[in-house]
Write a structure and sequence with these properties.
Blueprint (H helix, E strand, L loop, with lengths): L8 E2 L20 H9 L2 E2 L7 E5 L11 H13 L6 E10 L9 E10 L3 E10 L2 E12 L17 H7 L10 H5 L3 E5 L15 E8 L7 H12 L5 H6 L10 E11 L9 E11 L2 E10 L4 E12 L13
Parallel strand pairs: 1-10
Antiparallel strand pairs: 2-3, 3-5, 4-7, 4-10, 5-6, 6-7, 8-9, 9-11, 10-13, 11-12, 12-13
Helix pairs in contact: 2-5
Length: about 325
Amino acid sequence: MREPAPAAENGSPEEPSSTATEHPHPAVTDPVGLMLDVLDLDSSAARTTEDIFTGSSHPMPTGRIFGGQVLAQAIIAADRTTDDDRVPHSMHGYFLRPGDSSTGLTLSVDRIHDGRSFSTRRTQAYQHGVPIFSMISSFEREDPGLEHQSPAPEGVLSPEEALERVGASRLHPLSRRLISESPIEVVHAEGAIYEQVPGPHVPQQNVWFRTRRTIGDNPALHRAVLAYMSDLTIQESVLRAHGVAWAQPGLKVASLDHAMWWHRRARVDEWLLYAQESPSARGGRGLATGRIFTRDGDLVATVAQEIMVRVPDASDAAPAGEA
């Protein structure tokens, strides 16, 4: 999946591409408004045994749908089939095929189970009659209970300090125009890895992000946009560990699956810290995890994603820990 910020293609490992032809599109004057329009699904009059919704896509330079968009649309569709007192706490999804950003999507929601405290939904996104994404999500009625959390990482530059010391992120070499028109503002605390990998080659990085303007007070929308944002940059902890920049010729990256757990409410139009780490890479696959914190240190969500990554000559990539 190609992102408004660095991303991989969504789809099966047989069909990855980081060098797809760019498709020109008119300039976007309000990228946040465009994102909100894309996430505003239509209910279909068609009914089977499932609830049916339809939606559109961001125009993308590569012609491939941004995976975070489908994540957010899928959770919105599922959320609309649950009671108002239930909120999503987890989702597990698989990217099955590359999506076509030039055409619409159909999303079907299967109401698998409704219990006293939890509801379970299966959501599938279709294009051209075949599924491109499949997700299981769980919703709960929030009740009081035990509570603890991991602390936020220490010593990370604030977004203001990072902008002053590292500077604003340059345009991503694989989605140049859309970076400047992304609805999400992204600041790498250790510097972006678009053209080269600055600093030590370690499997960790910290990224600040927020929407470029306020989006209102609807908690369901903030949760969905957080899912959208969770797909931004998380693959980079795998690449940074080996000194591989996005601009490396012939690099192929494809997201395979994505999991997310919502822990606490947060506003996505305020700065959030995305602390990312890759615990393992082997056999052409890399696992990346991330924890999302507020500026006050509240743990908002945890994310995990496995990617397929192919470097033309793996010997050219430095081993983890070497600069």
